[in-house]
Amino acid sequence: MAASQPIPKTIYIGSFAHCISLNELEVCERGAIGVDEEGVIRFVERNVSNEEDIKLNFGEEWKDAKVVRLEGKGFFFPGFIDTHTHAPQHPNSGLFGKTTLLDWLTTYTFPLEASLSSLPKAHRIYTNFVSRTLSHGTTTCAYYATRHVPATNLLSSICLARGQRALVGRVCMDSLSPPYYRDASTASAVADSRACIEHTRRIDPSGTIVRPIVTPRFAPSCTAPCLAALGALAHETSSFIQTHISENHNEIALVKSLFPHSKSYTDVYDTANLLTPQTILAHAIHLSQDERDTIRARGAKISHCPASNTALTSGCCRVREYLDQGLTVGLGTDVSGGCSPSILEQVRQAIWTSRFVAMGGPGADQPDEKAKLSTCEALYLATRGGAEVVGLADKVGVFEVGREFDAQMVRLGVEVPEVEGESVQDSPVSLFSFESREEMVEKWVYSGDDRNCAVVWVRGRVVHKRKGVVV
Ligand SMILES: Nc1nc2[nH]cnc2c(=O)[nH]1
Ligand SMILES: [Zn+2]
């Protein structure tokens, strides 16, 4: 349904789960969430006994509301937020061999991205990728496109048509990039970025669904004048900013050699006025304490991309420590550094990475139990943490009155029968009759996937439905 079409008042009845705080997961067994015609949550009821009472309690205006009932085992959960991914790299998911960041970029990434000068190819890849991320429950996504203006504008238009909230950025790279894939000059990088910002603002003036994001690829790809001009462009147009930082040791050494007068990688961006409360910094694995302090002082946010960090052997980010130090963190799939479009997968991967740190692995001097992320903490990063990163902290991420209904219906399937019989079905989660509601959420986190994502809503509008599901 297009983002602007009216929707009926709807009451969602069934269990729901969401993170109240980093450490508090609420799992409500018999809930009712009332959503108005604008997609805004008007009531959240707990311990509901019957739907007629709900309608009566909330008066005349809810008498004829549509009811969406979650049948069987499952729960409503806030939509996931992917704070960092590359839509054009989707066809390369799973293709990385034994490369690390810098040779991976030249071997796999730049040739594929360059080929999106073909608009039909871009259309094929982008429509499929937006469908994929939606089918995994991603209701908001911060996308890198390529350096091509028409293909970048196409991605913005596709997100708007599909109703997925998105930040869409044209990638800037005027330095150290292959001749077949680079911006001719700082001036053209800025002019092309401006054209993409204007397109996004024209198709969605309110920015409710799609917003532009200024995107210097990373410091090695941009000259100092280009970084400074993009900082100025972001300020002039009040745009978000996204880039990569401190992902890999060779990359950090390269930045040091390219910007010898800068104090640090972070300082390169700070000098260019690229660190703002609207800045998303991907990876941020090997930051010094001084860099962390600068990032926090500027209010910039971090996108933790655990699957990509492992695939490209970039390192283990000490996320638990970042949270203790007051940094704001969300999760990113970083396709195709990461090979999965699923934020649920990043929840698991973030938890595994934190355990490697806890065991004294890379990024740790010695074992450190405090480094472990809990299931609730990782789910918080996937929803409310992500919402803070993309500037939607007051709008989505939790079921509260006044927020917008960005949600997924998680269906866990039927229980394994007590007598021998068919027990494998269209859900990877094996349920018995004795799990608590909280345990069902844990089982979903550790063994669920897109087969459990039955329906997805953005602002109360259906943006994805699994085949055969009726709502
Ligand atoms: N993971 C990742 N890191 C980058 N650094 C610069 N470009 C990229 C990219 O496309 N992916
Ligand atoms: Zn990336």
TrEMBL record:
Reactions catalysed according to its record: guanine + H2O + H(+) = xanthine + NH4(+)
Top-tier EC class: hydrolase
GO BP annotations, alphabetical order: guanine catabolic process
UniProt pathway annotation: Purine metabolism; guanine degradation; xanthine from guanine: step 1/1
Cofactor: binding details: Binds 1 zinc ion per subunit.
A single MF term (Gene Ontology): guanine deaminase activity
SUPFAM superfamilies: Metallo-dependent hydrolases
UniProt EC number: 3.5.4.3
Cofactor: Zn(2+)
UniProt xrefs under Pfam families: Amidohydro_1
Job of this protein: Catalyzes the hydrolytic deamination of guanine, producing xanthine and ammonia.
Name under which the protein is recorded: Guanine deaminase
Organism from which the protein derives: Periconia macrospinosa
Lineage summary: Eukaryota, Fungi, Dikarya, Ascomycota, Pezizomycotina
